[in-house]
Amino acid sequence: MKRTVCASLVMIVAAVLLTTPLAAHHGTAISYEMQKEIVLKGTVTQFKWSNPHVTLHFDVKDADGKVVAWSAEATSPYFWAQRGYNKNAVKPGDEITITMHPGKAGNSAGLLMKVMIGDKVVLLDNDR
Amino acid sequence: MYTRAVLSTVILLACSSVVMGQGTTFDPRDLSGSWLKSGGDRGFTNVRGEVPPFTPEGQKRFDANKPSRGRILGTPDAAAHPEEHVGRRRAVPPALSNDLIAECNPLGMPRLLFEPEPFEIIQTKDKVMQFFQWAWTFREMWTDARTVNTTDLPSRWYGYSVGKWEGDTLVVDSVGFDERSWVDFYGYPHSDQMHLQERYRRVSRDRLELTLTITDPLTYTRPFQSDTKVFTLLTKERLTLLGWTGLQENLCAPIDEVDFNTRIRNPAVLPAAK
């Protein structure tokens, strides 16, 4: 049986106020709350190194113990490869802590900012 | 004798198409190599560029296009920049857009030229080819002195292109376009009557400049002129990623993009299905 999810839905909904609305100029960012960040703990179910968007799919246990499938949008493989990342950055079963900009509709979709395994940053998009 | 030899050499160099640029010899009529756009965004013009008035038909087509790039439609941010053309202040989320790229349709010309990803120029006696990393697509520009008559030719996403050298400038004229593509990410339209002219000039070994002009009387009341696009020659080191040297296969595959839209991009902005 697939090992479930580690921890509970969390955590921080940090209203990180940005001086410039990045969303204003970015086709992707327009779908997300770029002034907010959420941090979740979960278990990776799929990491797709595909064009034009790398995507990360993971399970998160909510406050009631229910498993919720989340997905995160990331930018292109070309972007990640230029920064030294590759298709093996994360793999199914990895226990991660992920920081995202949440989607505007409040569903379980977000825009990937950072992924950590333990104390190690395994994916970081600091261009947003 | 010595003076004559020096003079001859100077004249030879002056008349040659091989010039010295930034300490390196290059042939301005050889555009071969992999080039990456430097700066600018994905627009036909820059943010200060002038967009010619639309014809009534052009206005109708412009209004029908719903891009997801630019300042967000209806926001204070969009209202605060009246100096920018309205085309840069009407973005909607991709899930509500009708940009053909959402399902990996071809970007067409000239939009493909504005991607922040490299293209390689391969030059032969009879044609100049561009191979684009984004879309993994070839484009031909024939330099064999042919002419184009589109009367019986089907329209194409990348049109029909012929080029000729004017001095050290490669002038490429293209017609026969599929009118469903957009001029750029901001959704500026064109018709199948669009005439696109591109002027390429290699001003140094590492720098290629391009200006474009669209003449499309069905859409614009006068020619639409781009800013100067600048491309930088990529070294082998910059073309090497993950241990592989060469362009990356950035092919937008519908099987992946539709999955992405279904699982992430649409749920990000649309209410959950009941």
Strand runs of chain B, count: 14
Helix tally of chain B equals 4
Rg of Cα set of chain A: 14 Å
Oligomeric state: heterodimer
Q: Uncertain spans of chain B, ≥5 residues at pLDDT below 50?
A: 1-17
- Give the count of structural domains of chain A: 1
DSSP strand count of chain A: 7
Beta-strand percentage range of chain A: 35-45%
- Kindly report how far apart the N and C termini of chain A lie: 37 Å
Note the run of SSEs of chain A as H and E.
EEEEHEEE
CATH architecture field of chain A: Beta Barrel
The helix fraction of chain B, in percent, is 10-25%
In percent, how much strand structure appears in the residues of chain B?
25-35%
CATH superfamily of chain A: Nucleic acid-binding proteins
Strand line-up of the largest beta sheet of chain A: 2-3-4-6-5
H/E topology pattern of chain B: HEEEHHEEEEEEEEEEEH
Give the biggest beta sheet of chain A: 5 strands, mixed, barrel
Q: Total number of helical segments of chain A?
A: 1
Characterize the biggest β-sheet of chain B: 10 strands, antiparallel
Quote the average pLDDT of chain A. 83
